[in-house]
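[Discussion] Sanity-checking designs against the backbone

I'm trying to build intuition for which residues belong where. Below is a structure token string of 207 positions. I'd appreciate it if someone posts a full sequence so I can compare it with mine line by line.
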């Protein structure tokens, strides 16, 4: 399906959009437009989780959200199987699948890395520069936050208005707080382009 809205094409475009959206979030929080803030929160969480997976070498390109490429699919399937106890892989088109993939990487990083491929060793070392406990707590928070956000988006007209307003501001801020924790982790991985190069994936991300 063709996009209705034009995508960013360069890193400068992405930076401009990122700054504009975080600026709108601040204005929305200041002036009480918490429903708009929730929308931006969700977009930010999806984007930062996608970036985490890209810099980890899980997604081959920005558009192709498959779980691994030709050179590291077997490694990633084992990492996910060790975490989940299943032979399948997470569906990265939805936010729950992205979260599960990140959790699998956290679990991998907390184990001893012995006799692994070059890719796995680079990934392991990079993940261990991140505050993994804080990241894990943020993902737990996102799970709870998503339940609230989904009720607001899909069933707001059925909710008691006073109950709806009671937690709206808090959750509008929480979503951005969680996104910033994930973004901090992304910045750690961004400085490790060798991860993607080790499996012959492009190390420069545009758009």
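Best answer:
Here's mine. Compare freely.
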């Amino acid at each position: 399906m063709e996009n209705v809205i034009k995508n960013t094409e360069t890193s400068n475009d992405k930076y401009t959009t990122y700054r504009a959206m975080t600026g709108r979030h601040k204005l929305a929080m200041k002036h009480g437009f918490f429903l708009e803030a929730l929308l931006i929160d969700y977009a930010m969480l999806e984007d930062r989780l996608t970036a985490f997976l890209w810099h980890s070498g899980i997604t081959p390109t920005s558009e192709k959200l498959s779980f691994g490429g030709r050179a590291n699919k077997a490694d990633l399937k084992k990492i996910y199987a060790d975490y989940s106890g299943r032979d399948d892989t997470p569906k990265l088109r939805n936010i729950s699948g992205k979260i599960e993939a990140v959790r699998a990487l956290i679990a991998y990083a907390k184990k001893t890395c012995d006799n692994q491929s070059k890719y796995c060793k680079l990934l392991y070392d990079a993940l261990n520069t991140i505050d993994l406990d804080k990241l894990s707590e943020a993902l737990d928070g996102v799970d709870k936050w998503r339940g609230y956000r989904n009720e607001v988006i899909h069933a707001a007209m059925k909710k008691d208005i006073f109950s709806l307003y009671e937690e709206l501001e808090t959750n509008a801020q929480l979503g951005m707080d969680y996104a910033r924790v994930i973004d901090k982790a992304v910045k750690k991985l961004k400085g490790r382009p060798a991860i993607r190069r080790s499996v012959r994936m492009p190390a420069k991300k545009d758009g």
